[in-house]
Amino acid sequence: MSVVEEEVTHQEKSVRKERIAFPVHDHMDLNDELFEHFGHAPAYLLVDVSEDGKVIRTETLDNIYREEHGPGVVPSLLANAGVNTLICRGMGRKAVDYFQQYGISVIMGAYGKVKDVLDLYLSGRLTSIEYRPRDRWKEEHEFRGEGEYEEEG
Q1: Largest CA distance in the chain
Q2: Residue 110 lies in a domain
Q3: Is residue 21 within 8 Å of 86, Cβ to Cβ?
Q4: In the chain, at which end, N or C, are there fewer CB atoms within 10 A of the end residue's CB?
Q5: HEC secondary structure over 19-83
Q6: Dist. CA 47–CA 143, nearest whole Å
Q7: What is the DSSP letter of 146?
Q8: Looking at the domain assignment, is residue 8 inside a domain?
Q9: Over its length of 153 residues, how does the chain's per-residue pLDDT go in tens digits?
Q10: What's the rounded Cα separation, in Å, for the pair 60 and 106?
Q11: What are phi and psi of 148, to 5 degrees?
């Protein structure tokens, strides 16, 4: 990293209030849809927000653990990326505990486009609600790509 890049990174961190992660389907930035199964999301959209609630920067982090991972691996990945808050559809109690151990707040029950969910969050109108998927990952469905699942059988 050059001196100029270090300075920009330092400036962004001093202005940034929060880094929010969203599990997403594609690399469509704020127009992407939230992915239902956070640990198996193809990627995470990281959104840096300033003190006054403005989006400073977005970045996509590919989920290298998408296919298989052990407990706590994804929370560690996001913690190492500087995430403070995860907004997702849902997860189990153990996963929430792992995120909390890293100091990451979890908001569940969100769905739709990232930009719409982010607007709700920044305006204080997004509340965390428990969400349980109808089926467990890969037990009832086979991934077909592009966020679609097919019943096995």
Answers
A1: 57
A2: yes
A3: yes
A4: C
A5: EEEEEECCCCHHHCEECCCHHHCCEEEEEEEECCCCEEEEEEEECCCCCCCCCCHHHHHHHHCCC
A6: 27
A7: T
A8: no
A9: 544 344 445 455 557 799 999 999 999 999 999 998 888 999 999 999 999 999 999 999 999 988 877 888 999 999 999 999 999 998 888 999 999 999 999 999 999 999 999 999 999 999 999 876 665 545 433 333 334 333 333
A10: 19
A11: -105, 145
Residue 111 lies in domain:
16-142
DSSP secondary structure code for residue 108 in this structure: -
Q: Nearest-CA neighbor of 23 among 103, 137, 152?
A: 137
Q: Count other C-beta atoms under 10 Å from residue 93's C-beta.
A: 8
Contacts of 131 (CB under 8 A, 6+ apart): 89, 90, 108, 109
Residue 80, amino acid: N
In a domain, 38, yes or no: yes
pTM of the prediction?
A: 0.78
Q: Which residues pair with 89 in a beta bridge?
A: none
